[in-house]
Write a structure and sequence with these properties.
Length: about 375
Amino acid sequence: HKIKFAQYLTPVEIARYMAKTTAEFWKSTDHAAILDAGAGLGVLSCCLAGELLNQHHKLTVNLDAYELDKTILPDLDSAYRGLFLDGRFFFNIYNKDFITGNCFDIMCNLEKQYDIVIMNPPYKKINSDSAYRKSLHDIGIETVNTYSAFIAIAIKLLADDGVLTAIVPRSFCNGLYFLPFRKFLLANTSILQIHSFETRDNAFRDEKVLQENVIITLKKTRTQNEKVIISFSRDKQFSEYHEISMPFTRIVDCNDKQLYISLPNTNDKAKTFTLACCHSDLCFDVSTGSIVDFRMKDKLVFDNHTRGIPLLYAVHTRNQKITWPVTSKKANSILLDEEEITKNAFRKGYYILVKRFSAKEEKRRICATLITPDSLTADFFAV
């Protein structure tokens, strides 16, 4: 059920922090139109509405909440009704898809405008031939995941100078796949604050999610702030919390074609350096492991490693050497036909297998393992 809806509900500690941060940046008026896209049980929007209503006693709040999962709608409705305060809080719950439900309205200039958006969007890949991809393309959004699609649509629905706060995977900060999204984000918003958790698996520990998440707060404007607040905490309880103010140019190099969003570590002492050459100058090629195991479950071999060809995971690398086979939860071999071997396997030879860790996990960020013709007995192997 959770996989179907890409459903990872927000812990209340994180919701309170996001609500407080959003309220600090929002310039108060007598009315606030709020959007919660993928509301879940309503913890984010309840925390935000409560924060605003308690701070501003003459404020009225109108909330639009989108939630696709019908099974939790009664709890969501009950949560919002519990916030009823002297006729100052009004809400609408839309049981429909946030992406397809808004793309048509945006294309026809029928969309609403919101003062504040708060969200924990679903994390799910968007296939190139999906209805999502076409709908997003029609409104000028090119992205590969539902979480970035939610943010991009929300930015279009945000009024000028409106504030958006979202907890999302850090993956949008770099990589070619998310480049169009970064261009869109930086062209339409100013980054106000980014919060990073020192412990990667803590934010959604109850959901067993091993994903590095950040909380990002944006303002709808075409002018970037000169300074960005970068904050840190050890965990979702926000212990050892601290923040620093950094120049925007330290976070994003606008001369960089990739527009990477570079987040410092808590003890960031890295110095700028320039690579002397690239891989082609050194006469070697680079490839990622082409086997995506969950898409080839029926071909994985766990019981008899002599069947198929060797399949290497990180668990097979020890002290810069290949250890194969090993006893673990991972397969040791994979059954591939000739065509699949040509497409997905490597011929016996000399290779360097590289695995990368988050800097928060190990002292050595890059771990390299030498593969020689003697490392494996088979003529081919897969990674």
